[in-house]
Amino acid sequence: MGYQSTNFTNWGSQIRCSADSVNSNIIEDYGRRMYQQDYLRFLRISHSNCDETSNHIKKILRVYPEIKP
């Protein structure tokens, strides 16, 4: 059970980091809104971070089916 607990903790940390990146990139993106190429690049990065967060959550739900969303 120790390995699973550690693995779950690591995934939780990854979820927090990727979710926080979404917010940070959107805020940084807003500051660059007058430069369209930078603006679009940060929007793409934010979208990728959303996908990453979603993937981490789906992975946890597959590995730990007893957890209900």
Instruction: Tell me the number of strands.
Output: 0
Ranges where pLDDT stays below 50 over 5 or more residues in a row are none
Termini separation comes to 22 Å
The total of helices stands at 2
Beta strand %: under 5%
- Overall mean pLDDT stands at 81
Instruction: Give helix % range.
Output: over 70%
Q: What profile does the largest beta sheet have?
A: none
Radius of gyration (CA) equals 15 Å
Structural class: mainly alpha
What is the 3D shape?
elongated
Helix/strand order: HH
Question: Could you please describe the fold and organization of this structure?
Answer:
By secondary structure, this protein is mostly helical. The chain is 84% helix and 0% strand. The chain contains two helices and no strands. The chain is elongated and about 45 Å long. The relative contact order is 0.14.
Short description:
The protein is built from two helices and no strands. The chain is mainly alpha-helical and 69 residues long.
Mind sketching the topology for me?
Layout: H1 2-31, H2 36-63
Helix pairs in contact: 1-2
